From TrEMBL:
Protein name, as recorded: Mediator of RNA polymerase II transcription subunit 18
Origin: domain of life: Eukaryota
Role according to the record: Component of the Mediator complex, a coactivator involved in the regulated transcription of nearly all RNA polymerase II-dependent genes. Mediator functions as a bridge to convey information from gene-specific regulatory proteins to the basal RNA polymerase II transcription machinery. Mediator is recruited to promoters by direct interactions with regulatory proteins and serves as a scaffold for the assembly of a functional preinitiation complex with RNA polymerase II and the general transcription factors.
Assigned keywords, A-Z: Activator, Nucleus, Transcription, Transcription regulation
UniProt GO cellular component terms: core mediator complex; mediator complex
Compartments (UniProt record): Nucleus
GO BP terms in the entry: regulation of transcription by RNA polymerase II; termination of RNA polymerase II transcription
Quaternary structure and interacting proteins, as annotated: Component of the Mediator complex.
MF-aspect GO terms: transcription coregulator activity
Encoding gene (name): MED18
Coiled-coil stretches: none
Any Pfam family the entry gives: Med18
Length: 202
């Protein structure tokens, strides 16, 4: 593995609404801060993404995210490559990524790069900070095709959890990836018996 890339390390899970309070309590107990979250996310892929896959190369995926609860919300653009093989990292999802703060219209910027919109969702819930990690608990809201506004999730919609590095991490001697993976696995251990966190290829 080279040190050229920066990486995201993540684990994922989901649970029923009836378990929300118990899970919130446990995560709050082991986190430094918490606040509400209502984010809009749009995923883009290259217009020739299928051709790239057919010819054996993996397209770079862009995700534009805007936190709606901020006073002056700005788009942040994330670029992702395919997760590393499960043989290399069986315990957690590890994938190259980069972030880019976009001034102005991130969606037009993505289009100008030759990207097309693949999907759009809103995520509503809570975000926690634990060291170098962020823990997001949220329900997905679908988008009203006419207004582009979120449609509130049904009360029994599954809750989703993402435990991930807050910022891109380089695999260096000072900050080996192993240490970051261990931080994510600590959360997995803390939630054992209440929430099953696992690796997934997304």
């Amino acid at each position: 593995m080279t040190t050229a890339h920066s990486y995201e390390v993540a684990l994922f899970g989901e649970f029923f609404a009836k378990d929300l309070q118990a899970i919130l309590n446990r995560i709050t107990l082991h986190s430094e801060s918490a606040h509400q979250m209502h984010a809009r996310e749009i995923v883009f892929e290259p217009f020739d993404a299928q051709h790239q896959r057919d010819t054996g190369s993996e397209p770079v995926i862009l995700r534009a995210r805007k936190e709606m609860l901020e006073r002056d919300p700005k788009w942040v653009l994330y670029s992702y490559l395919k997760p590393e093989s499960v043989r290399v990292h069986p315990e957690a999802t590890v994938r190259p990524w980069a972030t880019c703060q976009v001034v102005g219209d991130a969606l037009s910027f993505a289009s100008a790069l030759g990207y097309v919109r693949r999907s759009q969702i809103y995520k509503k819930g809570y975000i926690f900070r634990r060291g170098m990690l962020v823990i997001q608990l949220f329900q997905q809201e679908q988008v009203d095709p006419k207004t582009q506004r979120p449609i509130p999730a049904h009360h029994d919609t599954l809750w989703e959890v993402e435990v991930k590095t807050a910022n891109p991490v380089r695999n260096t001697q000072e900050t080996p990836l192993r240490g970051v993976i261990d931080s994510v696995l600590e959360v997995q251990l803390l939630m054992k018996g209440l929430l099953d966190l696992r690796r997934q290829d997304v």
